[in-house]
Known about the structure:
The protein contains eight helices and 17 strands. It is of the alpha+beta class. The strands form four sheets. Strands 1, 2, 3, 4, 7, 10, 11 and 12 form an eight-stranded mixed sheet that branches. The chain has a five-stranded mixed sheet with strand order 13-15-16-17-14, covered by helices on one side. A hairpin with an 8-residue loop joins strand 2 and strand 3. It is globular, with a radius of gyration of 22 Å. The chain starts with 13 loop residues before the first strand and ends with a strand.
Amino acid sequence: MSRRRRVQGREIDGILLLDKPTGLSSNQALQTVKRLYRARKAGHTGSLDPLATGMLPICFGQATKISSFLLASDKRYRAVGRLGEATDTGDAEGEVIRRCAAADIDEFRLEKALARFRGEIEQTPPMYSALKHNGERLYEIARRGESVERPARRVVIHALTLKSFHDNHFELDVHCSKGTYIRSLVEDIAKSLDSCAHVTALRRTAVAPFEKDAAMATLEQLEATVEKGLEALDALLLPVDSGLAHWPETSVPQALADRLLRGQPVSLETPPVDGLVRVYAPGRRFLGIGSATAGRLAPKRLFTRG
């Protein structure tokens, strides 16, 4: 008679805004945080390169139900690019594969080039990325020294600001849509100037709806806090609905909340705007996500706890 494997870990719900350090993959950072929290279930919301630092929302428990929406949200980055050298990875972790002229590029030319990359643009994903080709990660193919065709994807650069430029290094503030590769953006900007470049530093400063001034916790802070007990760690978590704070919301009486929790759509006297909404029961208890259409509210992704 087989025994069912016992699942270890605490049932906790919430979102931690981790300030990911350089040198760790997003999954390595996730596993460290999950261990510190002794959490049963956790996931991150969008990979950062090992070189990159900054905001990595970690979703615990019920919050994993909204992780896909955070993955799809806009992001902000601070990036430093170096003109005159291209690497095989597009960043400072790779090997230099080409050197290009850059002496004649000044701040005026660079500012003028940036204008071409604001708004909706086409971008080819880098070979060193986690996208798949025939079931295999592109970076695995790249590590064998091979390359495959990658279809260009449409992304949106909402804002692109030059913060500094000196000694062939330029710093950018980028507000972009999901799926934007900053390494590719820096390379394409340099290419438009008949040069080449790679990223030397990258920091994610915001993941919508969390703003760039939102408080983040470092791994060092978490390790120090765990000495005070799990309650102190839990106090650092944001509520699950904070990850959807930019969405419209609606509240329903308890009778309708019960019907929604049974998977039944309900009619509303004061319907919210059509589309996905946050749904609350009396006492501002967050039920989850509903889909509103023509005065009707259907359950989309609801919670079983809390």
